[in-house]
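Researcher: Let's walk through a ligand-bound prediction step by step. First, I give you the protein sequence. Second, the SMILES string for zinc ion. Third, you return the three-dimensional complex as structure tokens. Ready?
Model: Ready.
Researcher: Here are steps one and two:
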Amino acid sequence: MIHLVEPLFEGYIIYCNEFALRRRRTGYRRLINRYIKDRNKKEEGLEMDFSEEQIERYSRHIILPEVGGKGQEKLLNAKVFILGAGGLGSPALMYLAAAGVGTIGVADADVVDLSNLQRQIIHNNSRIGQAKVESAKQTINEMNPDVKVNAINERLTVDNIQEVLRDYDVVLDGSDNFPTRFLMNDAAYFENKPLISGSMFRFEGQVATFKGNEGLPCYRCLYPEPPPKGMVPSCGEAGVLGALAGVIGVLQAVEAIKEILGVGDSLAGYLMLFDSLKMSFRKVRVMKDPECALCSPTATIKELTAYEEAVCELRF
Ligand SMILES: [Zn+2]
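Model: Step three, the predicted complex:
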């Protein structure tokens, strides 16, 4: 059984010398290869021929029965879009790329700033002043050549967002302001895409999955309207714990990967709250608003609305 190979292999690492480790690794690769070939026969619809390099790169996924060759094929064929290459986008982009999500779209109109580097780990010192999407693309290309990156160096608006989202299977919101969150929610609803939303403030973060088209709540069921301009301080004003972005962005990536694989329980219908000071996670139920202006039978919103962005809101 292939499942026994991994612990044996890991156990071997502890005791063996470098030469023995190399020999063992070759044997391991052969086993994974055979495992993939067996699965190819068993799993109908598996069309991809994995290269030796891909088998090794994704071996820790492939040996998971819930993923297997078929799941990895799904990831390589998947298209995920992320709005924002900032605090949340950075870790989400990196883990989705590492997982082998074949096409990743990312939109951001900003350039890398020194104050971003406390949390936006996809960028680095030498990229200050460079477009964030180009910096993100470079990091991903260096990490995993299997991933095609669509870098959109512009701000998404009512005029272009739906067309952009249309090409993707799952969309992630890593934006930092309410007008964009509402725009993203409404566009995802109209384009019938699952939306995985993340947000953070000081030491606390939230993650939610919205599937307004599947009888589950949308973002407007939770927050019907954006707060009045100037009511909510931005991260620039209030501060944010840098590592918190890692927690929330990675949770978004995990949720997206599950969505692609079709495994586990979706977070749709819940809101996950994380308090880093108390080190506590809380999952609370979110009910669909029977009178939601967007996703209820009595909906009044039939097209995208542009909300004004508060001047004081800064980037995550
Ligand atoms: Zn709704």
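Researcher: And what stands out?
Model: The CA atoms of residues 110 and 132 lie 6 Å apart. The pocket of zinc ion is lined by residues 212, 217-218, 220-221, 289, 292, 294-295 (CB under 6 Å).
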